[in-house]
């Protein structure tokens, strides 16, 4: 298992939670963004910079991930692709996307997008709050705890990039 981060829009506090978690459980973490993102020195943490452009980072993540990987993203279309490939997705606010809920989330996102295109002001997500950090950290911890046995087994079998 590997953790991928759609890092362009990921809050710094969430990246910090991830940095600590991967050091603790020794799972590879790769941040993907179209601008430089500072990362701490660690053999578990890497950064991939992609060209600027719509969905370039998303496409890079989808191309590289394998079934069982975890992607941190607020991008619902990316999460849908991740789920379709047999991987997992968690939002920076701690919501776990699944095959059971991703279609509904994608439909709602598309509906809201159509309203915005039609000139209707729909607002945006609420500001990121301290409670969101804790919710994310709890969800990540639950996920890693559930998958920790598979993590070590899959690391040995995973091809090197």
Which key terms come to mind for this protein?
6-stranded mixed sheet
Q: Secondary-structure element sequence? A: EHEEHEHEEHH
Helical stretch tally: 5
Question: What's the overall geometry?
Answer: globular
| % residues in beta strands | 5-15%
Radius of gyration: 16 Å
Task: State the end-to-end distance.
Answer: 13 Å
Largest sheet: 6 strands, mixed
The tally of strands reads 6
| Secondary-structure content class | alpha/beta
Helical content stands at 40-55%
Mean pLDDT: 87
Uncertain residue segments: none
Strand order of the largest sheet: 3-2-1-4-5-6
Descriptive notes:
The structure is a single chain. This protein is α/β, with parallel strands linked by helices and 161 residues long. The protein contains 5 helices and 6 strands. The chain has a 6-stranded mixed sheet, with helices on both faces. The radius of gyration is 16 Å and the shape is globular. 27% of the residues are buried.
Task: Give the helices and strands, then pairings.
Elements: E1 3-6, H1 12-25, E2 29-33, E3 45-49, H2 56-64, E4 70-72, H3 76-84, E5 88-90, E6 96-97, H4 102-117, H5 130-157
Parallel strand pairs: 1-2, 1-4, 2-3, 4-5
Antiparallel strand pairs: 5-6
Helix pairs in contact: 1-5, 3-4
């Amino acid at each position: 298992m590997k953790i991928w981060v759609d890092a362009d829009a990921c809050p710094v506090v969430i990246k910090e939670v991830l940095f600590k978690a991967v050091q603790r459980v020794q799972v590879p973490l790769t941040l993907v963004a179209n601008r430089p993102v500072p990362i701490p020195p660690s053999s578990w943490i890497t950064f991939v910079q992609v060209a600027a452009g719509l969905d370039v980072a998303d496409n890079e993540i989808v191309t590289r991930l394998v079934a069982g990987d975890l992607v941190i993203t607020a991008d619902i279309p990316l999460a849908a692709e991740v789920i379709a490939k047999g991987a997992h997705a968690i939002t920076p606010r701690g919501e776990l996307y699944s095959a059971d809920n991703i279609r509904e989330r994608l439909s709602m996102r598309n509906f809201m997008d159509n309203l915005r295109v039609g000139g209707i002001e729909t607002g945006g997500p609420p500001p990121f709050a301290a409670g969101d950090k804790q919710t994310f950290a709890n969800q990540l911890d639950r996920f890693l705890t559930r998958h920790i046995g598979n993590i070590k087994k899959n690391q040995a079998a995973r091809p090197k990039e």
